[in-house]
TrEMBL record:
This is Sperm-associated antigen 6. Coiled coil: none annotated. SUPFAM superfamilies: ARM repeat. One of its GO terms (biological process) is cilium movement. Pfam families: Arm. It comes from Cladocopium goreaui. It comes from the Eukaryota. GO terms for molecular function: microtubule binding. GO terms for cellular component: microtubule cytoskeleton. InterPro entries: ARM-like, ARM-type_fold, Armadillo.
Amino acid sequence: VVTHEILPQLVYSLAQQNRFYKKAAAFVLRAVAKHSAPLAQAVVDSGAMESLVLCLEEFDPAVKESAAWALGYIAKHTKDLAQSVVNAGAVPLLVLAFQEPDLTVKRISASALSDIAKHSPELAQLVVDAGTCSLLVKEVSNSDVGLKRQVCGCLARIAKHSVDLAEVVVEAEVFPRILHCLRDVDEVVQKNAATCVRELSRHTPDLAKLVVNAGGIAAMVDYVQEARGNARLPGIMTLGYVSAFSETLALAVVVSRGIPPLKDALINEPEDHVKAAAAWSLGQIGRHSPDHARALAEADVLRRILAVYLHRDSSEDLQLKAKRALKLDLSHAEEERHPEVRTPASAGTTFGLATEYLEVPWAFRTALAQALLHWAHPGPSHSTLTKWPATATLLCRYVVQQFAKVLPNDMEARKAFVQSGSLQKLQEVQAERGSKLQEMVDTINLQYPPEIVQYYSPNYAQSLLEKMEAFNPSG
């Protein structure tokens, strides 16, 4: 079609012929433009933009639909092509088309506006300046599944660019309507709504707080719990973005039971990028204080993060995020412990946090890291784990370092360290003589009587046998 110079003839006829011809010609232009940016540019170079925009003013909904579809396919490829659509004056007419009673025209015009807004803050601002947001938000509750898909997707693409654009979406009263879409029967509507909430929550603490106050965390936790596969990703990222801003917001995620679905995604999702997102979000929850890290330890999350870190098939990105999450969470192990109740500044806020969670004595102790030592030196049967020296030496040193800081100041922790079997595992750590790791192992061993350390040494049984063989009862 392009090579044989048919496009100029189509464009000429587009402005001259009846509505049936216009619909068919716009369909051909759309079919050409959708394949690639060069083909879309060929449509623009043929002078089709002006004729397509004029078709948006046609009375016939079918002509408007075909023209809007063609403009959207042109705009979706690159920022420059989207700018060509804007320069042709299409945005105001697409907004008018969105207000048509015909649902198909609504869907296609919303899709075209979304394809324009996704490229840059400037283009998104032009879409917003046309009065789009309030119109889009009104249709979030529409019963038509296709329209809800496009509306939620368009709002997400507007909100992602900047704080100002996200605030415009919020001011259009997108909450709580967008949260209702998280329970829609259509999975695409759910995912697009979750993506919109993610884009709104990622910019500033105030916007994240607004999402929490609107009930967004509880709704997102339910969504992550029920969704599967790549659809989980926006929900997982939302919980991570909210948790990253402050310990108050992270505690809101904990109290809303956000840890179990993140742990489930870390364990059961087959795709590494979803696992990596879950590891990152868990790290954002535990990074703030011992209370937050304790919640992860009690949910047996740390051992699971270490498992994906050591797994030989884990991607580099997954290993990196798992390692960072472990370091963030373990960094609180050396902080001073208090047996009395510790109530963070978040108590009494507007988030409705469960006070019973805050009234638990600090029982973190060695539970934060004891599981790591049980994985420290996998035996030959652990064929799914990477070789120890290649991936885990630094991590083991970091864990032992935390123990070396904790145990000298906490008698209960020293007892728990022995009872959990961690002291025995510590004796199995293969550290080079004179290394920092060996120094830290020695520091921990000095916290116990020599007899106890000797009892848990790997060669203790053998040494007893040798003594028994050498012992002569007859003197």
